[in-house]
Design goal:
single chain, 287 residues, mainly alpha, MetI-like fold, 13 helices, elongated
């Protein structure tokens, strides 16, 4: 009971320290707004993201249409919210899949010396390609769809996490508490999960926020190039791509989706920086 109360107290103290930094608090608030809008999107706006209304095409921002309308008379505010829903879904799925693959590869490479060289070379080979080019090649090979985008981005970003986990595992496996666990006859799987992986939660969590931001940005880039989901599904990338030809007459079509991308990515980066500063003992001393 005392351990549970202590853990709850430590968690509360950590959250208070995190919110004490104004930039991190602002980032968390912006991120929370995006999540709430995505979850309650059907109830936030009365318009449909796909219903056409030619009579209302290219209307500027007004009390009825806060972000204006596009070339087909669709409400830009509604489409921006539903596009954020998809971007957050893609980002979350990419973080989960890339973390599963990256953490597994990193642990195996760092803990087993005979697997270190082949896995390390695989990681280096994949990271030698620019992220967006590798993602384009994978999507082009598998065919554009939501699942393909998630799988392609997960493959692209898994090596980043694997490299961090491998480097940390190489250090942790030489520490006395790991050697003591091995001397006591504790199973390798137990040591990897309870002794090594538990000490890697902080860097994994920090890196996950950056991967989330990069996945949102990459998904928008793929959609902009026409390699994302179906064109009928609203995404920030397709909205910006469609609004390019109306930059002189209806710049709101690209402005608001672009601002949404900037705010979403920036908030995640700020939160990631805050977590890194709070969880890294070397940086925490300077706070």
């Amino acid at each position: 009971m005392a351990d549970i109360q202590t853990a709850g107290s430590d968690r509360t103290k950590f959250i208070k320290q995190l919110f004490r930094r104004r930039s991190v608090a602002v980032g968390l608030i912006i991120l929370a707004i995006f999540i709430l809008l995505a979850v309650f999107a059907p109830w936030v706006t009365p318009f449909s993201p796909s219903k056409l209304s030619i009579a209302n095409r290219l209307k500027p921002p007004s009390e009825l249409h806060w972000f204006g309308t596009d070339e087909f008379g669709r409400d830009v505010f509604t489409r921006t919210i539903f596009a954020g829903r998809l971007s957050l879904l893609v980002g979350a799925c990419v973080v989960v899949l890339s973390s599963l693959v990256g953490v597994t590869l990193g642990l195996l490479a760092g803990f087993f010396k005979r697997l270190d060289t082949p896995i390390a070379r695989l990681i280096d080979a994949m990271m030698a390609f620019p992220d967006i080019l590798l993602a384009i090649a994978l999507v082009a090979a598998l065919g554009p769809s939501l699942m393909t985008v998630i799988i392609a981005l997960s493959i692209v970003y898994a090596p980043r996490l694997a490299r961090i986990v491998r480097a940390s595992t190489l250090v942790l496996r030489e520490l006395p508490f790991v050697e003591a666990a091995e001397a006591m006859g504790i199973s390798t799987s137990h040591i990897m999960t309870r002794h090594v992986l538990r000490n890697l939660v902080s860097p994994i969590l920090v890196q996950a926020t950056f991967l989330f931001a990069n996945a949102i940005l990459a998904e928008a880039g793929l959609s902009f190039l026409g390699l994302g989901v179906s064109p009928e599904v609203p995404t920030w990338g397709t909205m910006i791509s469609a609004g390019r030809q109306y930059l002189g007459s209806a710049d709101w079509m690209t402005f608001f989706p672009g601002v949404a991308i900037i705010l979403a990515v920036l908030s995640l980066q700020i939160v990631g920086d805050g977590l890194r500063d709070m969880l890294d003992p070397r940086l925490k001393k300077d706070l």
